[in-house]
Amino acid sequence: MIARGFRFKLDPTPEQDALLRQFAGVCRLVYNLALEQRATWGRKHRIGYVGQAAELTRLRAELDWIRAVYVSCQQQALRDLDQAFQNFFAGRASYLQPRKRGLNESFRFPGREVETKRLNAKWSAVRLPKLGWVKFRDTRPMQGTLKNATVSLDATGWHVSFAREIAHDARVPCPGRVGIDRGVATTLALSTGEMLRLPETLERIEVHKRKAQKVVARRKRGSNRRRRAQARVLRLQARQARIRRDFHHRVALDIARRFGVAVLEDLNTRGMTASARRTVGEPGRNVRQKAGLNRVILNASWHQFATILAYKMEERGGQVVTVPARFTSQTCAACDVVDARSRESQARFVCVSCGHTDHADINAAIVIKRRANSALLDVEGLHQRPYEASTGRDLTVSENPRPLGRGRC
């Protein structure tokens, strides 16, 4: 069984829209109250989901406006909080912050309490407890068993996301493997020689977004004009996100159909996009240039692509593996010599040892591909990085590279 999500645009009536906002507001309140309780009393008392769910029952008995919202949605908010604390204590996430109005508004229903039906060729409806039947634009067929339904609000309106479990038949993966270099100037470079870039539409939208952000800065805080200007910025950001996600889905699907193993660098994106500003007493260097580089890296959404590629490879019996990223841009794909001088420019790679010439990103993709199936040889040459690189330390790939997906390669 594999888990998959299906997201659709809701078309609620004005009455349903008001109820949806009420549901989101109460669930946000329950989450924030439970978070404050844990922050205040959690160090001296053991507080978990069970205890807070019991207190929620007493709170619903006292306040009618909280009781008006379906109880399962509020319980799901408490479960989310409990899981978030588990992630924090396990070191997988930072400490929790209160949820804010208008930011990532959402609430969830268990799958057993939700029902869907087809209305016509374009529209379907979902029955949500205490909300009734709500229309949604049916853009693709759904499969599997419904586990839960999440209703969310963004700049483009309300959406419903169905989480489903789908029976997964074992497939024979396609032969061959491909190395993928994720970059800035070239979004994705494949070891086959293909170079893929994000659509130019994103740059045009970015120009409009910056103008819209300047308009927001000129508006008075708390005014309706400022809220309308902010809504325009959010709509442009949502459009960028959709274009970027569509690009990643299309590329990942094409790769999954052609190859059985996809090899990526194990990139520390959080460290690569850390701010260079530092402190007033010890200011950083090249702060503006670093901020611009950070925006470009985050715009490429490297992690989103890796996540999408992993599940698409898994569906087809393939696998995604990661290898160390160190010196992939300075290693020659022909003779394995590492030398910083070989990287003549952002795009040109000319090996100072054997004379091999290629596009720098394509050369790096080939190196990434080779690192997945064999340990790197000791290398010689000039290094701009720590000396131990010449001994091969920290460059050796483990015999079993860490998989991102659970494929069967």
From TrEMBL:
* A GO biological-process term: DNA recombination
Chain positions covered by the region annotation Disordered: 390-409
Q: Which residues form the Probable transposase IS891/IS1136/IS1341 domain?
A: 177-274
Q: Name one GO molecular function term.
A: DNA binding
UniProt domain Cas12f1-like TNB: residue ranges: 302-368
Q: Which domain of life is it from?
A: Bacteria
Q: Does the keyword DNA-binding apply?
A: yes
Q: Which UniProt keywords apply?
A: DNA recombination, DNA-binding, Metal-binding, Plasmid, Transposition, Zinc
InterPro entries assigned: Cas12f1-like_TNB, Transposase, Transposase_put_HTH
Protein's UniProt keywords contain DNA-binding: yes
Q: Per its UniProt record, what NCBIfam families does this chain match?
A: guided_TnpB
What protein family is recorded?
In the C-terminal section; belongs to the transposase 35 family.
Annotated protein name in UniProt: Transposase
| Biological source species | Methylobacterium aquaticum
